[in-house]
Structures are given as structure tokens and as C-alpha cells.
Amino acid sequence: MASIQQIYIALFGRPADPGGLEFYQDRTNNGANLEPILGQLANSPEYLDRFAGQSQEEMINQIYMDLFNRPADDEGLAFYLDRLESGEMNIGNIAVAILDGAQNADAEIIANKTAYANAFTASLDTEAERDAYNPDTVDLARDFISSIGADDDMVDQGRVDMVVNNIATANPNAITLTAETGEAIMGTAGADQINGVIGGDNATVNTFDTINGGAGNDTLNLVVSASDDTVADPVDPQIRNVETINARFVEAGAVVSLANATGVQTVSASESTAFGQFTEIGNVSNFRVSDQGSVGFEGATAATLNLTLTNVADPDLDVQNNLELATIDFDDIVAGTLNVNVRDSAAALGVANISGGVQGEDTIEQVSINSTGTTGLNVIGMSGTNNLTDITITGDQTLTLAAGTVADGAMPTDGIDADGSDDSDPEFAFDGFTAVETVNASSFTGDLTILGLANAEGDVTVRSGSGNDTITTGVGDDLLVGGAGNDTLTGGAGDDIYGGVAGNDTINLDGGGNDEVHFDAGTGTDTINDFDVSGSDIDVISFLDNGAISFANSSEDMVRGDADLDAADFSELTSLSATTTADDQKVVLLDGSYTTSQLTGGLGAEAEFYLVAQNSETGNAEIYYDADWSDAAGREQIATLVGVDANNLTLNNFDVY
């Protein structure tokens, strides 16, 4: 059975770094279930950079070379290439299959490579060595692991130590802080990597230290433990001209204070194994979280926050059975705009400005989310949305977006239980988005589900993308426009307008109101539920004027739920055969009931019109279109009105737009 270490060798050609190995061991129950991470690793920046420009055949051959020091045999190459091209397998699945199928000399070689890789990872046992093992030095490790063959059946620790030493001394711009108090560090003109430890028994960053990155784009890499005084009196070194601060939190309660930092542009947390927090952040706009669970950010004063999430998930996440969300907790912020790039992550964004148990004013008014990745699902929960009015969604990966209230007693350090799988009551109630006015996902190509929008208190305009979207709105007079996918659109008590556009959509006219549903030919077959034929709340079917049909006498009066179809553009007849050429460019309503074959194959006049009739087999009113009813070619069903008897429909149920 393939291990995490072996997946690193197969996909990256190198041994795992200690932080990555620990993180993915936690995510996979010590490698027992690799499936959740294969897509993430095979679409990581390192993998994509390494294989950029290569063909699928070259990628498969490279995996064989990395594992067995040889290219794929013809049979194996053809087998995996066929499955990769068909989509039956991805490159991560293929790597595992190749590993699990290793025999004879191949099995000996990968066993030796794995033993050496494990020894290498274990030998990165100082912070300086861990920090030095970075994108600038990984080729040294690749060269080392590629040199291991069938004869290397006994690990030579001296050989391992030599490679580790070469890596530790390979970066001329690496600066490692010492335990000395009051240390003054001055960077170079290059891109310095400054490495230090906060808290714990081997701390090297102290309050009286001065860290100046100098020129260049510099990074301060911190390993952060908790100590007796970390939270009450955090370490506050003087930090100047360091553009990025990256922390790996290894103990709960760990804190990085930026009270005395200037010039910081990006705050990052990666490969943490415990909940930690950045405090007194100041005017920093960019935040990155990767390959870990929950983290906190406090005191950001920038007007716009840009957050990138990559492989962020709670260790207990199981999308099907346990929707446990990692918490990205922002406190004491003033920003009105939040931009989120989410990749293969499931996280609850706390932007509620709760500090010390006191509820502050929610400041976020605009949110944009770009959903990407390979796992097929991103989940974003949001609290603190009482002033959020505008949402924009882009990208191509399935996204579930939810807003709500985090229950009292929920601990962000433990993640957020969003579905009640841990307890009888979930810690996240989907009751948010009360102020939202617009949702624009028109360029989004993944499947979109929004939870909490039903609590919107005003009028909402939603434009979804080309995926299969699920949208439910609230009490306002809403506009719900679906995209090219098979969407489910549900309204509330207001006078709503539904535009399914393309796809076979399900439209639920829940909650009353004078609703109108827009149609045109050639855009799929929609299912309409809860259509009110008459009464105080009357719904209308609205056809696009100058679409498939050009109505000669009707015009839109811009009143929601109002029947604008002119009587001169409407015919009520006893049978399809009773139609004439005078019914061209009209809506024709038939009395009586008809079988499916009569509606799909019956013949009428040589005319173009919409036909509305009762289907005796389904018990529903159905709408059809044909450009020429004198033959059955090209006939299409436009919609089904579930539970509606077409004999009860009148001119008052038809509209144009």
C-alpha cells in the first residue's frame, strides 16, 4: 500500500518535508486513506511547475523514472495513458496504482528509495534545516533520491547527513536567528529567508530583537509554540522591511504579534499542527493559509482583505459524513471588502468582529470568491455578514457558500461543526445573508450552492453561472437568473422573476407572491412547482418577445407578475388539428387532455407557436414549441407545470418580457 512518503517521491521526485509529511499523515489517518489528498498534491504549485509543458505520456514516464529509475514499459504506458485521457483516473490515482503494482526489481528500488527518504525527512531535525529545505534547494534532494537503486538496501546515514548539510548551507540568503536576546539582523539586497522560533524551549526570537530585511522581497519564517506568557505578553521584536511573515503554529495558544512590525505586506500560516493567532496586524492586506486547519487574524486595519486558502481543512472533515470546517477567524477589522481565493478547502470565515465576547459592528460589505482546485468541492461558511450586500463568485470548482451564526460556546480552535454530526445541534446555523442585494456568479463554471440567502430581508438579484446551481431567496421581490446548468431556483414571499436560461431547471415558486417565469425555445425543459393559477397570488408564464416568437401585439409593462400577453396573440382551441396559419407567432392553449404521443407527435397548422396543454398521462400542464406544427420534427418541450391543470389556465397566466 502506497505511503505519503512514496507519493512525494512519485509526484515530486523528492522526500517529504517534515511539516508536509505530518500534515498529510493527519489528513489521511496515517496514510490509510490517500484519496482525499491525491488531487491536492497533483495540483499543487510544485507539481504544476515541475510538469509544466509536459505531455501526459511524459508525466507517466517521469513517475516511473522517479520510482523505479526507468521509463514505463509500453504496456504500462498505454494502460495508464488510456485511463488518464478518458478521465477514469487522475495522475494521483495512477501514481498509487504504479506503486501498488511494483514487483521484483521495481519493488526493491522503491523500498530502498522510501527508506532513504524516511531517513532524510527524519534528519531535518533543526529549524534551520527545515527552513533550508525549500523550493531553492529541493533539486539537491531530488538528485539524492534519484541516485538510490536496487543495491542501496542498507541506509547509509552519513550519505543522508551529507545531503542535509548541503541543503542547509545552499541558500546564501538564509539567515537564522539565535537565542541571543537583543540580536540585530540586517538582510541583504536579495530575497532573504530569515528563520526563527517563538516560544518553546529553543526560542530564537525575543522582544528586544531587531529584524531588518533590507532591500529585496524578504520572508520571516517562524515556528511558533505557546509559552507561559505568549498570550498575555507576546514576543514583540522590531521588524522592518520584511514583506512576508510566515508562521507554522505547533502548539495551541501560540501567538505572533506584529505590534512593532512595519512594511509587512503578507501574513501567512502554513503546515500548522495547532491553532495559532496573529495579533496587532495593522495595515496588511494579504493573508495566506495553506496545508493546515484553523488560524486567527486580529487587528487588521486595511480597507480590503485578500485571503488565499489552499488545502485548508479541519482534520475531522468528511464532506459526506462530518462537515467540520476549519476556522479562519478575523477579529477587530475595519475592512469593507473581502476577496477570497479558495482552492481545495473547507473553512468558516469569522468576520463578525467579536472580541472578548463582545459583538461589534460587521464591516464587510462586498465579498468576492474565486473557487478553484481539483477535489471538486470548496466550502466557505461566513459569520459576520449583517452588512454584506454584494457577492461575486468566479472560478470553476464546486462551491458551497453559507452564511450564519456561530453558536455560543463554539471554539474556533477546534473547527466548526456545520452539520451537527459531532453533536445533536450544529455549531453553525445557516441564517445569514440578511442584507445581501446582489449575487453575481455569471462567469462561474462550477456547481454553486448558497445557504442562508433565504434570510435576505430585501430584494435580491442572483445571476448564476454555467454549473448546476442551487439558489433559495427570501421575502423580497427577487430576480433569479440561472445559467447553462440544471439549476434549482427557489423564491420566497415576494413577487419574484425566474429566468432559467439554458438547462433543465427546477423552479419552485414557494411562499406566494405574483411570480413570473421566463422562457424561450431552445433552452431546455424546466419543471415548475407551486404555480398559482388564480387568486390573490397569481403566477404567469412569460415568453421572450422577439425570441423564438415575435408577438405582434404584446409589450412588456415592467410590472412583476402582470399578464402582458395581448388577447390578439392568444388562441384557445379544442385540438391541435384546429390550429391554422393565423395562430403563427402566438400562444395556443388547448382545452381537454392529451397523451404524450399526441403532444409530441400530433400535427397542426404550418405555423410557429407555443402550445400549452394538459398531459393526461402525467396530470400536469405542459408547454411545447415548434417552428412548424405541420410536422413533428424539431418539436421541443419547454416546461412542465407540476400539479397544474391546463384547463384552468387563462390569458391572465401569460406574459411577455
Descriptive keywords:
657 residues, elongated, Hemolysin-typ_Ca-bd_CS, alpha/beta, calcium ion binding, 9-stranded mixed β-sheet, 29% strand, PBS_linker_sf, 12 helices
Layout of strands and helices, then pairs:
Elements: H1 4-12, H2 18-27, H3 35-42, H4 45-50, H5 56-68, H6 74-86, H7 91-100, H8 104-123, H9 127-132, H10 138-146, H11 157-168, E1 174-176, E2 184-186, E3 193-198, E4 210-212, E5 219-224, E6 238-240, E7 244-249, E8 254-257, E9 261-262, E10 266-270, E11 276-279, E12 286-292, E13 295-298, E14 304-312, E15 324-331, E16 337-343, E17 346-350, E18 354-355, E19 358-359, E20 366-372, E21 378-383, E22 390-395, E23 399-403, E24 405-406, E25 416-417, E26 428-429, E27 438-440, E28 448-451, E29 461-463, E30 470-472, E31 479-481, E32 488-490, E33 497-499, E34 506-508, E35 516-519, E36 526-529, E37 540-543, E38 570-573, E39 586-594, H12 596-601, E40 609-615, E41 620-626, E42 636-641, E43 654-656
Organism: Devosia pacifica
GO molecular function: calcium ion binding
Protein name: DUF4214 domain-containing protein
Descriptive notes:
The chain has 657 residues and is of the alpha/beta class. Among the domains are: 4-168, no CATH class; 173-280, no CATH class. Helix content is 19%, strand content 29%. The longest helix has 20 residues, at 104-123. The protein is elongated. It starts with a helix and ends with a strand. The model is unreliable at 354-359 (pLDDT under 50).
